[in-house]
Fold each of these.
Amino acid sequence: MKYPLQPEEIAMHSSRAVIWDVDGTLVDTAELHFQAWRALAASIGKPFTREDFAGTFGWRNPEIIPHLFGPIYSDAEIADLGERKELLYRAEAKKGLSLLPGVSVLLQELHEAGFRQAIGSSAPRANLDLLLDVTHVHNFISVVVGMEDTQRGKPDPEVFLIGAEKLGVAPANCVVFEDAPVGIQAAKAAGMKAVGVTFAHHHPAEKLKAAGADLIVHSLEEVTVEVVRDLLEK
């Protein structure tokens, strides 16, 4: 694509959007989350393993806590436990987060091309606001959808459908960047294109492909505006 874009090209792309998952696509904070969950579990006398973490990665806290620690907590207790875990996470995240390779350039180029951009995540809003602050990407993201905005976690498509609605873009005109099979499944269930990213090594390419990814890349350095546009035109 040649720059600068003509006004009619920007107008065309403004009816198209990219929705970003966070962990494993924008940044890799998996280890921070694992350590926070492990500390929380220890404080309530519960085990927490790498397998527990991998099996629930991408879920919402209200789903993770009863699944891992048993259906013994009230809604208020689940909310309290979730907030305790997130406070542990945010204390470490505040020390600094780096965008993954290719993200900064792609955010900028999509913005310049007129694409709308959103975050669609299972994380609490406070975590997402912290991410935007620490990585300085506010100018590129016009909509943020987090845990508090949804009732159902991925692979349900709710988070991405809400993002598309808030952006004012039809689901068929959206591309989702994800690193987890449940996220890919959610994107496809929403009627969107899905790009699977393997850089953080959370899930192998085979699982992303089986989940329905339209494109799988190791790094977002492989993705350009042309790639996104071509996906939407298929």
Note: The domain at 30-93 is CATH 1.10.150.240 (DNA polymerase; domain 1).
Amino acid sequence: MSSGRAIVVGSGPNGLAGAVVLARAGLDVTVLERQDYIGGAASTRELTLPGFKHDVGSAVHPMAVHSEFFRAFGLGERIELITPEMSYAHAFAADRAVVAWRDLERTAQGLGADASTWRRLLWPLAADAERLSEVAGGAFMPFPHPVVALRLGLRALEQGSAAWNSAFATDEAAALLTGVIAHTNQRLPAIGAAAPGLVLAAFAHAGGWPIPRGGSGAITQALADDLTAHGGRIETGVDVTSLAELDHADTVLLDLTPRAFIRLAGGRLPAAYRSRLERFRYGDAVAKVDFALSEPVPWRAPELREAVTIHAGGTRADIARADADVAAGRLPEHPYLLLSQPSLADGTRAPAGKHVLWAYTHVPAGSTADRTEAVVSEIERFAPGFRDTILASSSMTAVDVERLNPNFIGGDIAAGTANLPQLLARPRLGPAPWRTPLPGVYLCSGSTAPGPGVHGQAGWHAARLALRELRMPEPDLSPEP
């Protein structure tokens, strides 16, 4: 049997990243995908009306320019990344908004009394964004770039503890940062939420928060095109139910959760390792609503009318209250919303003059609640008349989110809660958490280090580890002429 035969289960960004690395190294690679399309949540589909292209999962991609893998892969040379000058905005009150520009100094000057606090928190991280991405994009053991790691850690301790308000003089600046921290969907304050939130906020002032022209599926297609160009194959509609089905491969990368790995492995796993995977915890969920609109969202605050990415949630206290309700198993009356209107910057996303709007909101794990009306009502608080612009909508409950992608257990799009212990040990502590006790078998989903996001890092790390153990050199990933 050739030592160059590899199978990757799952065609999300991590699975495809690992497959690209192995194929470029010369292995015979096959990707198996249970859906009839590739990319999982990193896909773009017509969910409402013909001609309206909606991102199934993430719509905005800070890691597209900062991920070590995507930098090596040259993603920005393969697809067009549209990077707005306004990285994100925050709907603070009915007619008031706060803005985070790519230009950190411009942002700070707009925060008045909190200008110096914003600079202190984010300038040292944004100014060293490449090394910050290496700190945030690995296994955390050992930490690369200890000075950068210390800077991030100290700020995460401040913004993840009961002292998180002590640095701010105004509610606006605190809310602007909290809108980013809340991406992690945890009870706030929390160190495990503050650390990734600060990284994303710093990236907003470094490479910005880009969107791919044509939608998130462009990232998936670029990976798939490179894989097939180097001899790899993708088979859709294949549901792997046992590792025994993969015994003919020498290298196996699983873009799956620990829970799915336990099921596939059956009795093959050592008891201690299996027990560690069984202790891996999944977090709260999202519900998602996509809208086809007759015109842009009629935000009352003029700044919001230019924003591709918006956090709607009011003050820091309001967001913390909403996420506390979710953590307690309740649906908040005024939910936190993460919104994207990519058609403002990308005319390919909707028919001429029309727009798409993407919305995530937090809900308890396993929720069956359709949050369309709650999302519409919350947007109406900041954009009266929004309801009249809706041509059609498409809703996913938390249960639907898991049905779409079984890695999102209970609707947890992080594929495992990103609290501090599970950021450091994902799914276990060590310099190579992608390795499993089974020879040639590696985990590479968002449940493994460095965690959730469209970055390809977990697949990249797992494939590089596999190549080292095969005593094969790592390939060049850069685009070919």
Note: Residues 63-211+283-404 form a domain with the Polyamine Oxidase; Chain A, domain 2 fold (CATH 3.90.660).
Amino acid sequence: MRPIPENPTVAILGGAGEMGRTAVSIISQFEKIGELIIGDFNEVEASAVASQNLENAKTRIRTKFVDVTDREQLYSFLSDVTVVLNAVGPFYKFGVDVLKAAIACGCHYIDICDDWEPTIEMMGLDQDAQLNDVLAIIGMGASPGISNLLACLVSEELETIEDLFTVWPVDAGERGDAIEKAVEANKGTSGAIIHWMQQISGEIDLIENGEQVSRPPMQAIKMHYPGLGSGSGYTVGHPEPLTLSQSIEISGSSASLMLMQSATAAFISNLGGEINRGKTSIKDAALQIGSPSMIGKLKAAIAQFRYPKANNLPPFFAWAKGTINEEQFVVAARITSSPPAMDSATAWPLAIALQQILENQIHGVGVHAPETIIDIDHFFEAFAKCSEPPMAGRKEIIEIVREKL
């Protein structure tokens, strides 16, 4: 791995966006950085973010205009950067090109990519990254990111794995308001919402019978959570099943699931159908999330009874079914506390991964998903301290339960 200099330059691409500005706020408090650069297409917002953090920052902050679609400009920007954090979404449009540029420039890379399609292509750049002595960590946010690490913990409890699911909330469960908050902040036009519309339409790749297959999204999956009962989540296009299945032997199914109220599931399923039939575009569908039509609401109200509920499933967890001593068990792991909003729950994992690189806790090169490179113990020790309410460490913030079937 390319050595980290004493005063490294760290850049945050998309640092003026909803996730990036929170990452700037967090990382500006790191003491082992020589300079923090906010790279963004929106110069006005980038300057505002810098101004908001200058007074209390523990490192020098500056801004730079950068258009990631301009190859020459992007390469010039990355040529003097030690580590770049990429928060420019949606990643199915921009992720691959930014990673290629980072590798070519010898710049270590971390992102919050939550699209499965570019994840596959970016993982295919592993040899290029190794040859150029570059470390790249793909999908280091909440989901993917924390979800991958929780999946590792449940997998370690079992001798064989049949099914493995990662689960995140839309509008079900405590703090199940991630999409609602993104809509409030961006009126449905954010990269997160556009990504979501992409991944609830068309077909998505997941794991069935241990193999990668393509299926329509929004399929209900029922699971039993030890001590809490049964409920259902809905399949969505996400990287977790595709990367986890490369390092964990899964004989059955694996997917990323969303927890939603029945009416929300009906509305989203109908919206995905309209995208598939060409009645609306990805962008217009994203706008409908913020301002649903009366007809859309009525259709959802009528159809909601066909969509099973999340019931008492917790808002964010990993779940596996497998065997111990040839007996079948289910194991689930969840975090008991987290940062208060989607932006901070995503930016803190990104920042902790950067911290592991800067403190030389990671020495590998190549392109990695979180589960193959992140120090899990250190991660949850650090994550516990930034949660709300703060926790003392990994033992407090992680709850693992299992039940014999």
Note: The CA atoms of residues 230 and 295 lie 32 Å apart.
Amino acid sequence: MMKTDLAVLGGGPGGYVCAIRAAQLGLRAAVIEEQALGGTCLNWGCIPTKALFSATKLLSQASEAEDIGIAFDSPTIDLQKLASWKNRVVATLVDGIDTLLSKNGVEVIRARGALSSQREIVLSTGDRLTADHIVIATGSDTVQIPPFPFDHPAIWSSDDALTVREIPERLAIIGGGVIGLELATIYQRLGSRVLVIELLPEILSTADLDRRTVSTLKRSMTNKGMTILTNTAAESFETQDDYVVLKTADGAQHCVDRILVAVGRRPRTRDIGLEACGIEVDERGFIRVNDSLQTSVPTVYAIGDAVPGPMLAHKASSDGIRVAETLAQGHCQPSSYDLIPQAIFTDPEIASVGVSEAAAKAAGKATLVGRFPFAALGKALGMREPDGFFQVVADSEDHRILGVQIIGAEASDLISEAAIAVQSGLTLEAIADAIHPHPTLPEGLKEAAENALGRSIHAINR
């Protein structure tokens, strides 16, 4: 029988961060992980997706370079080398996590774990681990829909798509959410003709984004040759000799080579002993927690994708730190999911933090809104990245910034200044009065803040 202060079930971005922070604060911590450290994000999600996003950006840049007088021969794609490079990126980061856990004195137990009591985990090795507290950080799984089973060779999960074993000439993607659109971007750059089928009235419908932002992305994707069908249900498929016929509920038939199912993720909370311990879950399988991320069992906490809220790696890490500090220091830092930024790696990129203009109005807020286009930024034009805009939403009374949306080049990097502003309750003036270097992309945030204040120099004031 092994004993520790804190046992963390899952070694993803929530679990390993929680264990390291707990160890830094003097607790004996152990992580139980049956697969690779880093979880879905590092091994089958965020990192491989962004590595391929970066790599395929070179293809789109090469294809457009002739417009500025630079010509290349048609690029060749070595899928084996591309996959090997992506795998090396992942392996480097996995090794880094292993080292960090070791250097911080966290024990890593390579096994599957399930709760057998409120303070005990039974391991697939036959051993048992007791702990004063347990943190459930088991992450999430891809959702499979019955008409499109992942064990069929023509049907891909997101994991299959990220192996980049082949480039389908025609690729249908069921799901117009973040995962589906990011993979659509990658495969369109690789040369696939991409069809996106979304059941709901709009793509990215679960994200708090304003219509202008979504419309800008949809127009850009369509201009690149993608077909996007909304209000459309994928119903079934038939395999022919060398292709697949995808049938939709409206009676249409689409001939494709592969079908990628990307309809979301669900919490990995089944078969981990929750029922035996009396831990409550909601109707979707998420573990019910209080403001301190404590479950209905006082000794057990849950974080990340296992609990309600944005299914984001950085949200899981924040949850993990909060729980570790709660257990070690006896208090919990308040947290609001409105303050968590999100980045979507499409082309152009989208990033947001805080509330949208529509959400602010729905909440009865009187707002000031400022925008500034990428097309008016010298740096963006020099990069040949004119698509998109910055948008700032602020309270009209005290000018406190409530939310920011950015669609355009490097939006995922540009959102961090806005995240600090929203979290710290900064005003429009704080951004507008700060001198930003020229020529750079972050000038766009300053210009948007100035536009909201009616004092824009480089755009027409609203």
Note: The chain has three domains: 2-142+266-337, 155-263, 348-452.
